[in-house]
């Protein structure tokens, strides 16, 4: 198991186009040296879809599946749209610069938007024995608070959290 994480990372970086990011975690078995488990997490990719052997694949909950041409075109269009949205946000920040025209100093503008949430982001809420009560309480607090984004309420209510909060 000593080189398994490196091999998996190498495959993820060289075979798919564009390359994949992987996160590995080794769990050593107590019974024998060099034996254990390797957890491989492949986070959702902001540059999906990925091509392998001239075919594009999508990810289901438990399986992968081959994407049709229309799905590939749609995913590429969605990515271009997200990039355009980010550029618009950046231009807005630049246009709203309070020091615009005041000095000749350089400015650095950054806009950050999460591409994907961790899979376990809602686990502290949904993994507890009283998860339904905790979730209802959280939703009620979010509904009554102006500070809580509505997206969080809508997405977490269904037990799946996304990166928009």
Can you put this structure into words, describing what you see?
By secondary structure, the chain is an alpha+beta fold. It has 5 helices and 5 strands. The chain has helices spanning 4-14, 69-95, 123-126, 131-144, 150-157, and strands at residues 23-28, 36-41, 50-52, 55-59, 64-66. Strands 3-4-5 form a 3-stranded antiparallel beta sheet, with no helix packed on it. A two-stranded antiparallel ribbon has the order 1-2. The longest helix is centred in the middle third of the chain and has 27 residues, at 69-95. It is extended and about 70 Å long. 4% of the residues are buried.
Helix and strand topology:
Blueprint lengths: L3 H11 L8 E6 L7 E6 L8 E3 L2 E5 L4 E3 L2 H27 L27 H4 L4 H14 L5 H8 L8
Helix pairs in contact: 4-5
